[in-house]
Amino acid sequence: MTLSRPLRLILMLSLAIAVAACSSTGGGRKKGGYYKDDGPDSNPPSNLDQVPDAVPKVEPYASGANRPYVVFGQRYVPDTSGQPYKKRGIASWYGKKFHGNSTSIGESYDMYAMTAAHTTLPLPSYARVTSLVNGKTIIVRVNDRGPFHSDRIMDLSYVAAYKLGIVGPGSGQVIVEAIPPDEIRRLASQGAPAAALPEPASATGSTPVLAPVDAAPVALTAEPLPAPAPGSAPVRQPAAGGLGNVYLQVGAFSQPANAQSLVSRINNQLGADGAPPASMEQSNNLYRVKIGPYPDRQSALNAVQLVSDRIGILPSIAAQ
User: Which of 281, 286, 290 is nearest to 311 (CA)?
Assistant: First the structure.
């Protein structure tokens, strides 16, 4: 039976309220960030580590799900303007209790796909989420609304939380950065056409685990960073070739020892390939690990796949 638009909106709002009710404070919530009676499946897939990040592509926004709405007296206004979004806060996750239920855009929620819920980001859209605890970064497809809780900014799928390292504690401090359509188009023009990029993968096999062919992985352009702080590891220059101001950022840590450990690992693993060196610098209370400089942006893009293959981290482009 085909539902009328008003009825569909009512059902969508009802689902959002139900999710919000689960996230409200109270004695029923488990320790951590996930919801009452929720948790991981009793027998999760064995290939969670191999589930790739969501690959951004330009998609039409869902009608209805991007209109202003009110939950628990709070009015939310989704932003479809494409303006930059970058915010620090707490991310949690939702799992088996909602697995198979409809998301706010009518898709079936898959706890083993790289997706997330957000109150105001466009649906669907893509975002980069970086843990401020361990520096890990993932890319998710935002296809649901929530969490309707004042101390959290994003709900991750189970596999996304697993890859970010917050399944155990249930929540963690993160930075969420939207990947706007203009950025997706620009990066896609340097690799595969946006229409050729695959859908987000799932560990269950309900969506094929694919990878773009001969395409540079999509990475969000980071904000320009200030000069290294006194005492931070210096940025070494490449032995030959023209100097540039383009870097690949591979991590951001709250503790300098963790950043320095990654610098050492990268230089050991990439040194034999003649890649520019990794270095550490302090910026906005974070210790960022970068590789470079590269002579130009295209040279950095060409190196993304090598870096990802060697160290297992998908880097982003960053200008000095």
Answer: 290
Q: How far is CA 221 from the centre of its chain?
A: 13
Closest among 265, 275, 206 to 239, alpha carbons compared: 275
- Residue by residue, pLDDT tens for the chain (320 residues) are 444 444 444 445 444 444 443 433 333 333 334 566 677 767 778 888 888 999 898 889 998 899 999 988 899 999 998 889 999 999 999 988 888 889 999 899 999 999 999 999 999 999 999 999 899 999 999 999 999 888 899 999 999 999 999 988 889 999 999 998 888 887 777 654 333 334 445 665 543 322 222 222 223 223 333 344 444 444 333 333 445 788 888 887 777 887 888 888 888 888 777 789 999 888 767 788 889 998 888 888 888 888 877 777 777 787 65
Answer yes or no: are the C-beta atoms of 101 and 129 closer than 8 Å: no
Identify whether the C-beta of residue 179 lies closer than 8 Å to the C-beta of residue 127.
Answer: yes
Residue closest to 52 by CA, chosen among 208, 194, 192: 208
Domains assigned to the chain:
5-182 (2.40.40.10), 221-319 (3.30.70.1070)
CB 318 within 8 A of CB 221: yes
Residue 163, both tokens = 């890859």
d(CA 195, CA 58): 8
The 10 Å CB-count burial string (b at 16+, else e) for 7-37 is: eebeebbebbeebbebbeeeeebeebbbbee
Buried b (16+ CB within 10 A) or exposed e, 113-144: bbbbbbbbbbbbbbbbbbbbbbbbbbbbbbbb
Which residues, 6+ apart, have CB-to-CB distance to 45 below 8 Å? 112, 203, 204
Nearest to 266 by CA among 242, 284, 249, 285: 249
What lies within 8 Å, CB to CB, of 166 at 6+ separation is 33, 91, 92, 93, 131, 133, 156, 172
What is the pTM (predicted TM-score) of this model?
0.55
Using CA atoms, how far apart are residues 289 and 282, in angstroms rounded to an integer?
Answer: 9
